[in-house]
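subagent[fold] <- orchestrator: predict structure for attached chain, return C-alpha cells only, no commentary.
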Amino acid sequence: MNTAPMPKPGAQGQALAMRINGDKAAFYSCKFYGFQDTLCDDKGNHFFKDCYIEGTYDFIFGRGASLYLNTQLHAVGDGLRVITAQARQSDTEQNGYTFVHCKITGIGTGIYLGRSWMSHPKVIYAFTEMSSVVNPAGWRENFNRGYDKTVFYGEYKCFGPGSHQEKRVPYTQDVDQNEVRPFLTLGYIKGSTWLLPPPKY
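subagent[fold] -> orchestrator:
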C-alpha cells in the first residue's frame, strides 16, 4: 500500500505501491493499494492470481509480460482514470498484459481499460466481467494518432454492462478464438519452465 493522498483532478501524483523488475515472479492472493501508478509491472514474465489491485490513473503500468488470472481491478476516485499503461515499444518486443477471468469494479463515471503510454501497447481482456464503471469507448484515445495502427487492444467474450463494444474506439481488436488462445494460458509467460507445479497456499 502507498498511503500518499489521492492527487487532485488534473494533478500528477505518481506513488507506487510496488515495482517488479525481475523475471519469473508470481503473486497469489495479494492486494495492492494506491492511486496513480499503483503497480509498476515493469520487466520480465509475471503471474498474478486471485489478487486485488486498486487505483486511479495508469494503476498497472510498465513493460512486463504478465498474466492476470481471477484478479479484481478496482477503480477509485472520479475524473479521468485508466487501468493500464503498457509500455511495449515495437512489434518485436515479447511483452504485454493479459487479463483472464478478471473483474473490473469501481465508482465514478467511467474508467478506460488502457492507454498508449508507448507506441505498441498490448493488452487483452478475456472472459472478464466489466461493470458499468468502464467507459463505453473502452480505451483512451491516442494522443498520437499514428498509434491507432500500432496499439493492440483485445477483448474476448467479456461480459457485464461495461463490456458492450458498440461504442468502442475503432482500433479495438475483437479477437477470435484462434487469436486469443496464446494469451489464455501459462505459455504466454513461459510458465511451464518456472511456474509449475503451483505452490500450495
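orchestrator: received. Logging for downstream: The chain is about 0% helix and 35% strand. The first strand starts at residue 18 and ends at 20.
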